[in-house]
Amino acid sequence: MKEFTESESAKQSGRKKFEEMIQFLKNSKDIKTILVEKTDRLYRNFCDYVNLDVDKTGYSVYLVKEGVVLTPNSSSHEKLVHGLKVLLAKNFIDNLREETQKGRLKKASQGYFIGQVPYGYKKLNPRKTIIDEQKAPFVIRAFELYGSGLSLEHVRNQLYDEGFVYQPAHNKISKGQLGKLLQNINYVGVLKFKNIIYEGQHPPIVSQELFDKAQLSFRKDNKPLYRDDHNFALSGLMTCAECGCAITAEIKKGKYIYYHCTGGKGKCSQKNKYISEEKLEKQFDEAIKTVNLAQRHVEYIKQGLKECLKDKKEFSEEIRENLQSEYKRIENRLDKLLVGYCDGTISTQLYNEKSIAKL
To answer: pLDDT per residue over 26-40, tens digit each?
Structure first.
């Protein structure tokens, strides 16, 4: 009836084509069958899994490569194995993300920008970033004006009045974008990644003195220099027994973590009662220790793990073959480039530019 091809990352919910498929199924009441290559091509997170729960939706999911058909009438064993595959698919995505982060961290520690460069710079290749002569004066003037004591609103207006154009489509920069620009320490020639500052491979646009002067202006305007984001271990796992609101966490005295009811639905006697994370962790440990698995469930899990590991191995092998093919293609091009350079048909400058770009 219809084919959906998803090219976006599946590590989180919200994929455009996936959502289109869900809506199509909702609008087509007589269509109850979904064909897909295998489990980790359909969903790799729990939100997608819930949206296609066969018991709730009545759909039949054909996992063609796995030779499995999942329907509301499937046995509990088949549904358990399927659920395990979804769980391990998510674990596979998390592992890929960890490996990607390792690569990003290594590149950042060497002083190279990851992804898009800040306004005022331009990237010639992954390891070469230079100053954009057209945009850099805007950055320098912004720091000078804000460091002189003007407010963000006055700075953006002054830049516009002096003829500085932020972008062709937006001549005047917004206050939010200006604030982020003025707090970007990368402009002094360093690289900040995951709150760690490394020596950058790019040239500075503003001096350390001018940057520090602008940061003092933020303090004068009562604007925070830094925003602390915390990922509390037990957030999102609990609700208040009295009012049903979420249990939130906050830091006391700079280092102690306490949890309490948000009281979002009105008055709640538990809102002002706090419990430390240490005590909560002990309660969670005690609850988890009471969970026991029957031997038949253990066997189901073993079987599911074996099937998922087999799929993971096949997928890894496919990626390895693709990477080898790409490596050979690039190596072949470099060989041709070297032959042209040796024959004198390619200049030294062109050879250097192309070989660096390929690498």
So the answer is: 888 888 899 998 887
